[in-house]
Amino acid sequence: MDRISFKIGTVFFITILLVEGVLFYYLHSSIIHSRIDEELASLQTRGNNHRDILETSYSQETIHHITAMESKTDTHVIITDQTGEVVSSSVPTDHSMQEIITGTPEDVPRAGLVLENDWKDKQYIASVSPLENSGAVYMFKNTERVQSLIAKLNKHFWLAGILLLTSMAVIILFLSRFITKPVIKMNEATSKIRQGDYSVTLPRGGKDELGELAESIQVLADDLNHMKRQRNEFLASISHELRTPLTYIKGYADIAAKAGTTPEDRSHYLQIIHEEATKLSGLVKGLFDLAKMDENTFTIQKETVELCEFMRGIHSRMAPSFNEKNIALNFVCHGEVYIEADPTRFEQIIINLLDNARKYSEAGTATSMQVFKKSSTVHIIVKDEGKGIPEEDQAWVFDRFYRVDKSRSKALGGSGLGLAIVKELVEAHGGKITLSSKNGKGTTFEIII
């Protein structure tokens, strides 16, 4: 599980190491060059100052004063005459100093000149300041002191580098753990999902991509868990819905075939067999319609339909069955409202919704049908005052074989396919269907085309 944090940490570490290495190298080089330039400028300025004093008062006393002063510092001064001979020196002149003096060019500018700046390989860095008609002032500084200064600077850089690398490693370790912890949890969750265990719970993340991914995995797990339950319920429902009418058909067929059965009883049994066969045929047809919708082989033959007149015809045909249960069926539609729809399929949608309203409403209540146009959309509302749908069931009522009433009461009937077919047909017409319901106060279905 730590492989991803190791990889991320390694990538971060190498990337930052390269960036910091380049920056450190540039900073180190800049500081060293700046420090050497300061040393050379200081040496040249010191020589120019001595030169100015000598030009003001060129005497043995002044020369002695200058050399005596420099003998107590880390720089050395050599004063020469016009012929290049050494007049005075703060230290004994060695071979390296003599080589630098001998190599002095003829035309030295008034501001002075750096004669040697190689602090790495030479014994001295040096500058020269010309004396007007009197020779020159040479300034020297032993490179051991410069190298010691650079060594101290390098030591500080190494210490800073080690501290930076250590702190960077610790920070990257915690950062990579912080970044990869949710990824590891998501990996564990997907492993459980792959093994068929959908009972995963991921902590709510932030609004970034990792948080969105965790939320997507959680939604996927919940959906798969629901689909697993739905599949089991689907198989149980199919088994029940097919077995029940087949049991009736077989049982009553056996009784009707007995020799002692009276014509009246046989006729009654045949009527039951016919009803169960009709119910079984409707169930198979519903399943067949859904299968065709899934395979996109379900055709919708649209034509222009005047919706008020169309719904009025459905109201006339359905009203007697509502009156039979002492339920009022009201219809409201003003003017003319036109849509492009398949009349047969659209009638199936409305009848399914009305059939549900009638089944789950008590006597003395009312069911209403309403059609109106709003902007560029047409709204169709079927509202009842029945049992209502519990909030926890509302998200699933359009699923196949899903029943709010799990008892499969024969009095209510139904196969659990009606609303699934309604949803598919509405979407096939380019619309959507929504519901709002309160337990014990009724349900409202709204179709928007």
TrEMBL record:
Histidine kinase domain boundaries: 237-449
Subcellular location, principal: membrane
InterPro entries: HAMP_dom, HATPase_C_sf, HATPase_dom, His_kinase_dom, HisK_dim/P_dom, HisK_dim/P_sf, HssS/ArlS-like, Sig_transdc_His_kin-like_C
Gene3D superfamilies associated with the record: 1.10.287.130, 6.10.340.10, Histidine kinase-like ATPase, C-terminal domain
The organism's place on the tree of life at top rank: Bacteria
TM helices/strands, residue ranges: 6-27, 157-179
Subcellular locations according to the entry: Cell membrane
Stretches assigned to the HAMP domain: 177-229
Topology of this chain in the membrane: Multi-pass membrane protein
Swiss-Prot/TrEMBL keywords: ATP-binding, Cell membrane, Kinase, Membrane, Nucleotide-binding, Phosphoprotein, Transferase, Transmembrane, Transmembrane helix, Two-component regulatory system
Entry-linked SMART domains: HAMP (SM00304), HATPase_c (SM00387), HisKA (SM00388)
GO terms, molecular function: kinase activity
UniProt cross-references to Pfam families, sorted A to Z: HAMP, HATPase_c, HisKA
EC numbers for this chain: 2.7.13.3
Reaction(s) catalysed (UniProt annotation): ATP + protein L-histidine = ADP + protein N-phospho-L-histidine
PANTHER family (alphabetical): SENSOR HISTIDINE KINASE CPXA
Protein name listed in UniProt: histidine kinase
UniProt lineage: Bacteria, Bacillati, Bacillota, Bacilli, Bacillales
